[in-house]
Every structure is written in C-alpha cells, then in structure tokens.
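Narrative of activities, Objective 1.

The group set out to show that a structural description can be obtained from nothing but a protein's sequence at a throughput compatible with the screening campaign. Below is one input-output pair from the validation batch, recorded exactly as produced.
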Amino acid sequence: MNKSVDQMIAGMKDEIIDAVRGALKSRSVESEPVEGGPFGKGVKEALEYVVELGCKLGFETKNVEGYAGHIQFGESGDIFAILGHVDVVPEGSGWSVPPFEGHMKDGRIYGRGAIDNKGPVIAALYAMKAVRDAGIVPKKRVRLIVGTNEESGWKGISRYLQVEEMPESGVTPDACFPMIFAEKGIVNYVISTPITGSDLDESSIIWVKGGDAANMVPADAEVELAFSQEEVKEMVSSFSAANETTLSVDNGNSGTKVLFKGKSAHGSKPEKGVNAISAMVDFLCEIPSVKGKCRVYLEAIREKLGYENEGVSLGVSGTDRLSGKLTVNLGKISLEPGSASVEINIRYPVMFNESMIFTQLEESFRGFEVTRRNHKEPLFVSPDSELVKLLQEVYQEMTGQQGDPIAIGGGTYARAIKNAVAFGPLLPGRPEVEHQPDEYIAIEDLMLLARIYAQLIFRVVS
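Output recorded for this entry:
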C-alpha cells in the first residue's frame, strides 16, 4: 500500500461527503430530451455537475454532447477506464427521507443514486486526485467515464465509445466486492396486444398501470374499476394474494381504485421483492366481469408469468455453473385504450442463448406481439486474467479479506469495453439498497471505497 496516497484520501473526507451530497440533488431520471441533454434536464445537470467538479479539481475533462463525459489523469499511454453513471431509476414510494437532498444521518448519506452510482463515481474521482496530489507521475492514462442512461438503455455509453478512444481495460464500481468475473445476459421483452376503449368497458376496467422500470420489482400497481366502493371492497375482501402484497381502496376519477403495495428490489434479484403487478393481475383474473380481449390477455400473463421469477411456466428456466439461474422480473404493466402491455426483464446465464429464449417467448405468448428491448450480451473474464489478479491483490491488501471473484445477475458497464470487470462498491455482508426506498451509502464504506480505488489507480499508473 502506498501510505502517502492513503493519507491523501483521509484528508479529503469532508470534501468527498460534500461532493456526494451535491451530486444527489439532481433527479437524474431519464426524461424528455432538452438542448445538450439527450436524456433530459435532470440527467444533464448530474453529468455537468461531475464533469465540472473534475475540471475544478484540475483534471482534463470532456462532455460528449450530453451523452457521457470523462475526467482524465495522465497525458499519454493506454487508457485504464473507471466507468460509472449518474442517471438513476425513479425514486418510487416508501422513503422516510427526501430522495434528492443528500440527507445525512447515522453515518450514512441517503438519496437515490447514493450507491447506484453517484457515490462511487465521486469516490473514484477523489481517488484519482489522491494519486495525483501524492506526486505520482502516471505511465498510463486513467479515465473516469461518466455515463448517462445506464439504467434505461446504454445509448449514452454507446455514443461515447463511438467517438472517443477505446480503453485498453477497466473497472466499474457498480456491483459488489471482491470483483465480478461473469455477468448474466440481460434483455427486456414487451408483450403487447391492441385493445380498445370498448374492450375495457366490456370488462369494467377504466385503466391499469404499475411499475416504474423493467429492472425494478414493482412496489406499486393500481387499477380503476367501473364499480362502486362497496362492490370493490367486497372483491378485495374475498381476494388473497399469493405473495405479501397488500390492497387498499380509494376513490377514482370516474370509478373506484384498487392500490396494490408490494416491496421494491433490484430486477436482478426479484425473489427479494414483493411484486405488486403479479398480485394485481391475479386479482383482475378473479373478477367475473373481466371478459373478452382483456381476460384473454390477463389470463395469459397470469399463466405464463404469475408470481414466478425463474421462468418455469414460460419454458425458459435453467442454470449454469458459472452464473446461476435465469431470473424473470415482471416490471411494468399498462392497460389503456389502444394497447395492453407488460415489460419483463430477464437475466439469463452466461452459457445460454438469447435467441432461443426469444423464440420460446413468442411461442408462450402466441397471438400477442413480443418485442425485444435493450439486449446486453453476457460478460465473462477469466478469473486467471492479469486484471482479476490485480484486483484481488488490491482488495486483499486494503480489507484483509479473501478476494475470490464471483458472478452476478446484474449488468454493468464492464461489458461495454473489452477486458473490464465490476469492482465494488458493495462490501460483503452489507444490505443491498440500490433501487429501493431509503437508498444510502455508509460514509465509512464510501471512504474505504475511495481508499481501495486510490490504491488500484496507483498500481495501474505506476
């Protein structure tokens, strides 16, 4: 360990905390494009905040048309990339603190993006600063690449890599420690069918909606029905969800609403959440007045997806030794005049074939349209590679813990370039709070992350 570099990080604690809290104040959920911001105003503000901070700290910086940016240490040599992102998933409900104020309490910084991924991006930036301020002369370039729509399509990083130099290797602080040598393939599918206002009227359904993003277990779903409150309350009292979703009744604009409350979780681990959409579809299928095209569609969703998260009824379940089981998350639903649709997120094992999964889905949902979205191929980097060995050494040196590589169902920017893996930020034994209410990063863990990355950068450039 380079003690001078480590001491630099210790002296930056207050500055790092302030920078993270500042980054969390942008609601950087993808929205309608604005000038200089292809993914919306909030994402633009978040990208500009980090790039401008890098400039203030004395680094070479570049904003690539609002699609991504970079902050660079070193002037020549191959590029070692640290890839992060400043966009976030929607905050959802259930927060006990404001999600976009960088709230601090009990040794934690709370906010959407605290650990996924603004906090780690700031930690990596200050790790670069520590190495530079320690007087280390770099033999390579270290480039912190800041992406913008990692949570919703990767157009930002794709555009960046089209116009900028491709890094030789890299890491991303967007998963967990010790390091990730394999990531499952990730793909979203939309299953849809045309429906009319008359189809909805026939079923006494006014509208149906649920979920914020396909890669989140939906904590909330709701339907407005053309029934009185008394009739709906009787339906609710006679229904029992097969998961822990709770139901409540409220006034609608022209009918009665049923609100379904589950528990959010990351889409890569749907078993950790409580899917409100699954319960709502089950509920609607139990109402005798739901008829015609609406019933056919909802029954198909219940039969093939239901409360499952391993794709058994879809006919796509399976596992491999490297990366584990295939998972399915029913993330979004909408029924309104014009269309009925659901969007699912599938994480498939490294050795599986996505085209075969797609073919099976078309068979399972024959009669409906199945559309593929945002497919990302699996990642595999040999555990015996020089990169993985280096990360093991740094992790063990800084934590005193064994650094055996692992596989995950999550998807990171590591697969955007060759020879890259995810490295942090979540430490073993810590709760997984990304994509959930009251997301936070512990200040102690934030500082350890900065220390680990500073030593990694030192090893890379020297």
